[in-house]
Amino acid sequence: MQKQLNKYSIIAIIAILVIYACGGPGGKPEPTDTPTSGEVNVVVDESFTRLFDTQVYTFQSIYPNAKVHTKFAAEKEALDLMINDSCKVVVMCRDLTDAERKQFELKNIFPKSTKIAEDAIAIIVNPENPDSLLTVDRIKSVLLGTDSLWNQLNPASTFGKINAVFDNSGSANARYMQDTLLGGKAFGKNVFAVNSNPEVIDYVSKNKSAIGFLSVNWISDLDDPRVQEFLKTVKVLRIAKTEGAAGYKPYQAYIKTKDYPFTRDVYMINRQTRAGLGMGFVSFVAGDKGQLMILKAGLIPAIAPVRMVQVNME
Q1: Domain for residue 165, yes or no?
Q2: Largest Cα–Cα distance in the chain?
Q3: Which residues constitute the domain of residue 276?
Q4: In CATH, what number is assigned to the domain containing residue 252?
Q5: Which of 41, 57, 77, 139 is 20 to 30 A away from residue 285, measured at CA?
């Protein structure tokens, strides 16, 4: 009798171990990732494709047991994927709104936002366009469609209709300009979108009447051969905050000082509720190595110091 009881006890213990090894009575597998190992899905705003290709490659080189599955998407799609739990981390050009946080909190999830960089929207034209400086108000009038001809901006221009192009209708670039500059008003009929930041560069390089809006990350790393090629085909405008004021290009120093007007913060938002690989990857990007890569890419790191030098040109 005692032997039978011992036999059943052993069977019961084994059964319990099997159940909890499979994730408990519901059968849901327990997470197995750690901050430096396992797998995690991360969705990155398409504006930062080049930067995060480098970040992921470096992270996985240091931690060979970690696999970061990266998807590049427009801002709206990235956020939808995280809300639906198709990814644990997103990289966006803004923080979550109160309404968006509420969606997570209803599921007892409290995402953590980490600022990793400061970015800017660069404005480009065809190299043959004689204009090299526009004001914030002029950009606003172009996007509203109030100024839809180049000779409204420059009476000497012969380029005709202004075609304003964004990377994607649901992108962070379009959302930023519409919300921040236009106060939520609709774009004019002369504004349209292609499918990516490189397509914006390609369109502007082939159309003299075009003006393009893209993340500065695509043209800021001057040591990158592809960036050097891009800058041979387009011209980056200087932007002045008011008529008669000095104009600035989206260089690091002017993004940092906010002399360049169209700047924004970049966040990594992690919905993981424990110390998993998502948290580990965010910590890496926000740490010394990740911040140095951000600095090298021509953006402003959120944590690492930026050395600013004044040069007197005699």
Answers
A1: yes
A2: 105
A3: 38-118+264-301
A4: 3.40.190.10
A5: 77
pLDDT digits (tens, 9 = 90+) for 154-187: 888 888 899 999 998 888 899 999 999 999 999 9
Distances (CA, A) of 144 to 164, 178, 184, 194, 210: 10, 9, 11, 18, 15
Tens of pLDDT, residues 226-270? 888 889 999 999 999 999 999 999 999 999 999 999 999 999 999
Q: Do strands 163-166 and 191-193 pair parallel, antiparallel, or not at all (unpaired)?
A: parallel
Residues 111 and 231 in one domain: no
Report the C-alpha gap between 79 and 86 in whole angstroms: 10
* CA atoms of 281 and 32, how far apart (whole Å): 15
Angle between helices 75-83 and 98-105 (to 10 degrees): 20
In this structure, of 86-90, 243-247, 286-290, 302-306, the range with the lowest mean pLDDT score is 302-306
- Write down the pTM of the prediction: 0.82
> Cα(91)–Cα(52) distance, rounded to whole angstroms?
9
Residue 278: Cβ within 10 Å count: 26
- Characterize 231-243 residue by residue with b for buried, 16 or more Cβ atoms within 10 angstroms of its Cβ, and e for exposed: eeebbbbbbbeee
Contact of 35 with 277, CB cutoff 8 Å: yes
- Do 150 and 233 lie in one domain? The reply is yes
Assess whether 177 and 107 both reside in one domain: no
User: Per residue in 23-54, pLDDT tens?
Assistant: 444 444 556 889 999 999 999 998 898 899 99
Asked if residues 238 and 261 have their Cβ atoms less than 8 Å apart, the reply is: no
pLDDT at position 27, please?
A: 46
